[in-house]
Design a protein that fits this description.
Length: 509
Amino acid sequence: MSASAGVQAAIETYRREALVPSGVRSLSPAVESDWDTYEARLWRYHHYDLYYFNTVFSQLDRYARQHLKDDDLYRYTRGIFNPVWRLVNITAAKCYGGNLDWQTLRTGAVPLEGLDDNLTAAIRQLWKWSNWAQLKMRYARFLARYGDGVLKVVDDPARGRVRLEVLHPGVVREADIDAVGYVKRIVIEYERDDPEKDGESCLYREVITQEEFATYRVKHGEAALYPWHSDPRGNPREKWLNPYGFVPVALAQAADVGRQWGATTFHGGTLSKLDALNDLASLVFDHMRQTVDAMWYIAGARSIEELDVQEPEDESAERSTVQVMTGPEGSQPYPMVANIDFSGALEHIKTMLDEIRDDCPELSFADLREFQLNSSPAVRLALGDAIDRLTEFNGNADAALLRAFQMAITVGGIGGYANFEPFVAGDYEAGNLDFQIKPRDIVPDELSKREVLELWRDTEAPPRWIWEATGRSAKEIAEAEIEAFEREREVAADVARALATGVADAEGA
C-alpha cells in the first residue's frame, strides 16, 4: 500500500480524532467526524499496524513523540505488554483456521451447505485458481487487524479464469455503498512503476461502477485515463463496459459501529488502556532498574575527584560501576532512590491487564490449557463472552465472502470458464446462487466426544454408535458384531443347558 505525498504526511502525524466514529452521517459534514475519510482510514490502518507489530513506542519520528505527548505518557514508555498480535491471530484462527474440505466442501475451514453438484465443482475450481487455502487466512487477519476487509473478484479472460483477491483496505480510496452494504462504485488506488518513465513510480487508479470499468495513471496529482490492461485479443483498454451488472467487490467490517467503514475488535478504549498499562509498567520497571543501579550520596567529599573511583577499562565493565553524588561532611550515605511499593504497583498492573482482558475476552483462548476444564460445556460457560464475539466476527466475515463467491460464479459463468458453464448472467442478482457458509463451532467438537461416549454407554445405545464414533471401519464393526453375536449365543446355550440339567435333577429326586 502506498499513497500520495500529502496523504502520507497525514498518516505520519498522530491524529487521535480519527479513532472516534462520532457524528451522524445524515447531518452536515461540519458535524461529522473524519472516521470515513480516506486519510483517516489510512491513519487508523497505520496506527493498528504499529500495535500489531509492537512498534508504536519505538518509532523514532514525530509520530511517536506526538503520541506520547498527546496522551501524557512517560517519555520512555515501551511496548512491554501488547496482546494485539495474539488477539488478531486468535480471531483469524477461530474464523478460517484449518484445512479446506476439497472433497465435499461441506466441512473444513469454510464449510458450505445448500450445494448441488454444479456449485460444488465451480467453487472448488474457484478455490484452486484463487489459492484460497492460503488467502483465507490473509482475509481473516486483515479483517481482524484493520477492522475492514476487501475481496475483489478478478476476471482473467486471457487465461480463462476467475479468482478472488484479498486487497489491503488501504488501497480503496472511495466506495459508494448502499443501505445493505453492497458496493455500487469503488475507486482502487495504489503505487506502481510508472510505465512512462523508468525508475519512477505513479499511482494506478481503477474506477468500477455498475456500468463500466476505467483505469487511470496519476502523476503529480493529475489523473488521466491510461490503458493499464488489455482485452482478450491483446488490445490496450482504458475503459470498457461492465458485463456483470454489479461491482465485483465485497467489503466486510469486523465490528459495525454505524459508519461506512468498520472498527477492529480491539477498538474503543482498549488501546488507551494499553497505553496506560505500558506507561505504568515502563515507569515501574525502570525504577526497579534504578534500585539495582542506584546513585549514592557520599558525605564529606567536596568533589568526585577526592574519591578513589576506578575508570572502567571497557564498556562491559560499566555495568559494575556505581554512580555517586557528594555532599557536606556529617551527612550520611544513602541510595538516592524513591521508596516505591513494588508489590502494590505490580498488583495494579495485574488489575489493568485484567481490565484489558475483559475488553478482549478472546485472549482467554490463549490460556485455555491452564483451565481445569475437560468438557465443551464447561469451556463454553467459561468463555461465553469470547465465543459470542468470535461468532459475530465470523458472521461478518462470512457475509462478505459469500457475496464474493456468488459474484465469482456469475463472472465465471459469463466467461464460460471450465466448471462454470451452467451459470449465466443475472444469477447473482436474481438470487439463484442460494447456498450458505455454515457456522463453525468456536469450541472444537473433540472436547465433547468423551461426553457423547459416556452418554451412549449410560443410555445403553447400540454398540455400533460407539464403534463408529471411535473411528472403526465398517468391516471392523461387522466383525465385532459377529463376535458379539457368537458370544451371546454361547451364553444363551450355556444357560439353556444349566436349566435343562436343573430340571432333570429335580425330576430324578
